[in-house]
Specification:
single chain; about 150 residues; alpha+beta; four-stranded antiparallel β-sheet; 2 helices; about 20% helix
């Protein structure tokens, strides 16, 4: 019996380790981000904004929301990369307590932005204001420019 246990135990431990690691790494990807919160006044003064932020989210999973918190700008970015032949991403932006109700939007007052990850970098303008209704012209306040770069796509 001890001889059989000596043969089976290492194989069992290796199999369990492989099974646990498959779930931990299957579909993981990383996203590097930069937010340029420079306003018109900053540009006119020739300064950069204190709202600029950068970072990397390394533990994102396919088909599950991955969040990026921009604390200086009081924004929460949520993105979801869909696993398919072509990788597509859907991005949402939400404001914190210092933002207006219903903040935030992308171009044309859209509540979400979509992108194709075949491009090396996505950039999205984020606005505070309200959503577009029908053919309404929307002029929201520009908060900044969000850059997203995805890596380790499997």
């Amino acid at each position: 019996m001890p001889m059989l246990l000596r043969r089976i135990l290492p194989v069992t431990i290796a199999a369990i380790g492989l099974l646990l690691s498959v779930d931990a790494f299957a579909g993981d990807y990383a996203v590097s981000y930069a937010f340029d919160g420079t306003t018109r006044e900053d540009v006119a003064a020739g300064t950069t904004s204190s709202l600029n932020e950068t970072g990397t989210a390394k533990e994102c999973q396919y088909d599950r929301p991955c969040t990026i918190e921009l604390t200086k700008s009081d924004l929460m970015i949520s993105l979801n990369v869909q696993r398919s032949g072509r990788h597509k991403v859907v991005v949402f932006a939400d404001g914190g307590r210092s933002r207006s109700i219903g903040c935030c939007y992308f171009s044309d007052g859209e509540q979400r932005a979509e992108g194709d990850l075949a491009q090396p970098m996505l950039w999205l303008r984020i606005y505070d204001g309200h959503a577009r209704k029908r053919n309404e012209v929307v002029q929201n306040i520009h908060l900044g420019l969000l850059y997203l770069q995805f890596s380790d796509l499997r």
